[in-house]
Amino acid sequence: MNALTDASSNIPHRFWLLSIFRSLGAGNPLLIAGPSAFAHYLDGVPQVALLASYLERHGWLAKVSDARSVPRYHLSEKGRAFWIEGERWWHQLSWLERCKIRLLG
Q1: How far apart are CA 36 and CA 80, in angstroms?
Q2: Architecture of the domain spanning 2-104
C-alpha cells in the first residue's frame, strides 16, 4: 500500500483503522452523536471514537443522513479506494509484522 507504506508512521493505529474500514465496507454505518460528543458507534469497532475525526479529516467518510437524527456515515469513494489499498498492504505483511502492528499500532 503505497500511501500506507510510505507514510505508515503517520497513520495512527493501522490495525484499528483497517478494522474500521472493514466494518464500514461491510455496510455498517458509523453513527456520531454530536460534533463534540465522544459517542461514536460502529458495529464491532469500539475504537472508532478515537479515529473518527481522522477519517473525516482525510475525506474517507461520506454523510448518509443528518436530518433530525443522529448523523450516519459510510465510506466515500476515496475511503473505499484507500481501504482496498490497505487490504493489499495488510496481505503482503508477514505473520510477525501483522502481530507487531496489532500490538503496537
Answers
A1: 26
A2: Orthogonal Bundle (1.10)
